[in-house]
Amino acid sequence: MPMLNILTYPDNFLRQPTKPIEDIDGTTQKMIEDMSYTMYESKGAGLAAIQVGFDKSLIIYDVSPSEGGKSLQVLINPRIIESHGRIISENEGCLSVPDLRADVKRAESVLVEGFDREGKPMRIDAEGHLAIVLQHEIDHLNGILFLDYISALKRELYKRRIKKQLRQ
Ligand code: NI
């Protein structure tokens, strides 16, 4: 299985809006397989299709404890229907925003609707860590990165750090 290239900030493709998936066909299944391999190899808790160059409304995640075995979840065309409360997501990170961790304000609970990889409608009532992962991944589908939520100063410092690295 190929390891997909993960796009990183400031790649503009990450800002593209994504298109709904209308047919869960072989191409979609292959995308899921490759994304899953890439996510586990990169030790990420979630991955959105846009991060690996597909402008499709698809996310995968696995929030099971690392010693408990894998439990891959797939959500196609996910939408947040309701959100409640406020929590601080501590030390949030993203495979597309390397070497940055920050505390981010998130909703405490979300109700998400979408479809699984067989096309079955899904409804997920999530709170805590799962709610944070879902918000983070669904943000990707709307061109939003977690660093959009941090202070302008922190973002500017990160931007400079990345530009310097790119020059080297
Ligand atoms: Ni991310």
Describe, in plain words, how this protein is organized in 3D:
The protein is of the alpha+beta class. It has helices at 26-41, 128-141, 152-167; strands at 46-48, 58-61, 73-84, 87-94, 97-106, 109-115, 121-127. It contains 3 helices and 7 strands, in the order αβββββββαα. A 5-stranded antiparallel β-sheet has the order 1-2-3-6-7. A two-stranded antiparallel sheet has the order 4-5. A hairpin with a 5-residue loop joins β6 and β7 (121-127). The longest helix has 16 residues, at 26-41. It starts with 25 loop residues before the first helix and ends with a helix. It binds nickel (II) ion. The site of nickel (II) ion (NI) has 5 residues, from α2.
How would you state the average pLDDT, rounded? 95
CATH level-4 homologous superfamily: Peptide deformylase
Reported CATH architecture: Alpha-Beta Complex
Q: How many domains, as an integer?
A: 1
User: Which structural class do the helices and strands define?
Assistant: alpha+beta
User: What percentage of amino acids are in beta strands?
Assistant: 25-35%
Described by strand count, sense and barrel closure, the largest sheet is:
5 strands, antiparallel
Q: Radius of gyration from the CA trace? A: 16 Å
Share in helix: 25-40%
H-E string: HEEEEEEEHH
Principal-axes shape call: globular
Strand order of the largest sheet: 1-2-3-6-7
**Are any ligands bound, and if so which?**
nickel (II) ion
